[in-house]
Amino acid sequence: MLTKAFIPYGGYYSSPFARWQGSMASAHAIKLAAATSKRWFTQKNWEPLNIDYVFLGMTIGQPQWFYGSPWAAALIGAENSPGMLITQACSTSTTCVFQAAAGIDNGLYENTYCLMGDRASNGPHTIWPNPGGPGGEVLAENWMMDNFNRDPWAKGAMIQTAENVSQEVGVTREQCDAVALRRYQQYEDALADDRAFQKRYMFPVEIQVSRKKTITVEADEGIMPTTAEGLAGLRPVLPDGVHTFGAQTHPADGHCGIAVTTREKAKELSADPGTEIQVVSYGYARAKKGFMAMAVVPAAQMALENAGIGIGDVKVIKTHNPFAANDIYMADQLGIDVNGFNNYGSSLIYGHPQAPTAGRAIIEGIEETVMAGGGYLLFAGCAAGDTGGALVLKVD
């Protein structure tokens, strides 16, 4: 259990998530995330030079990301801050926040910043020399698509892991469609009253298209209107599978930032010093080969155990759910209502830019917990390689 790491209320933001090959498709992910953070810091009157350490979470390479975290820190204005690059697929944000919190807890840092961003659009294509190949042919990889479509250990595509779990435990097409519709309806709640919920945490992105033209992205792009009839009419992605494109997530672009600091500093920086957000515990797990959705449950259970609480003590639950079966399996194993969590949105609906996905869910969970009067927040999600990560936060 962690006891000394806190997040200032309002000390976080998420960009809108843009559809694949949409408004953010050509923007350098490090430069764009840093520029947005710099504008956000300016709006909050925060001094970037006060940051001790920057955790840059990113999973899809960008030009010169060898310099990743120190470069991002300098672009934000934290020119004296070192840092590290963390890349752990869909668990990247979870790990960034935990590593920052652990450093605060043991006194290594006092004021850290976690910046998570990815551009799934226009991903890099990597080549390696192959001297033994015929004619010196190179080895090539489409960084994103080749990895989405084939786990080198389990040998299958990401969606195959969800279908494996569904087949083993009896998840049906009808269940997946019902969860997809419910998640869309929950997302619509975040759009009510002129997007009142999203405006609690979402910060607009400015993208320079040319020397004379800049566009502003203020809301999510690429959300597909969803109805029961529309879902029923879709074909499964895999033959005899239970997931359609309506019951799985989609690639996206975006970023988010979360400050993790001491209790005293959090009070100083908080938009409401009377609201405390404590990072309490972390959990991790790895499921059997090719069954990624199963890893979320033991990760969540570890985080709960490390926090000294049970699932019944949790006020708000958020998940990274790239496939509907993830939430169905988790709800069944933990004995909770699958319709009762992921209020106001989830990656199943607004997309999955990889590194910032969990971060946005955590931020949304904080805001929902505040609205509910405080309590424990559990975030849990799967990640590539049949792994999972989870965090427990407490809002007072």
- The CATH topology of the domain at 158-198 and 276-395 comes to Peroxisomal Thiolase, Chain A, domain 1
Q: Got a strand count?
A: 14
Helix content: 25-40%
CATH homologous superfamily assignment of the domain at 158-198 and 276-395: Thiolase/Chalcone synthase
Low-confidence stretches: none
SS element count, helices: 12
Name of the level-1 CATH class of the domain at 158-198 and 276-395: Alpha Beta
Give the percentage of residues in beta strands.
Answer: 15-25%
Q: Look at the helices and sheets and give the structural class.
A: alpha+beta
Secondary-structure arrangement, i.e. CATH architecture of the domain at 158-198 and 276-395: 3-Layer(aba) Sandwich
Order of helices and strands: EEHEHEHEEEHHHEEHEHEHEHHHEE
Distance between the termini: 17 Å
Q: Overall mean pLDDT score? A: 97
Q: Per the principal axes of the C-alpha atoms, what is the gross shape? A: globular
Structure explained in plain terms:
The protein has twelve helices and 14 strands. It has a domain at 158-198 and 276-395: Peroxisomal Thiolase, Chain A, domain 1 (3-Layer(aba) Sandwich). The strands form four sheets. Strands 1, 2, 3, 4, 5 and 10 form a six-stranded mixed beta sheet that branches. Strands 11-14-13-12 form a four-stranded mixed beta sheet. Strands 6-7 form a two-stranded antiparallel ribbon. A hairpin with a 5-residue loop joins strand 8 (205-208) and strand 9. The protein has helices spanning 29-44, 68-76, 92-105, 145-149, 158-169, 173-195, 228-232, 263-269, 296-307, 324-334, 347-350, 357-371, and strands at residues 12-14, 18-19, 53-57, 83-86, 111-119, 125-128, 139-142, 205-208, 214-217, 252-261, 277-286, 314-320, 375-383, 387-395. Helix 1 (29-44) runs parallel beside helix 2 (68-76) and helix 6 crosses helix 10. The mean pLDDT is 97. Helices cover 34% and strands 21% of the residues. The radius of gyration is 20 Å and the shape is globular. It is an alpha+beta fold and 396 residues long.
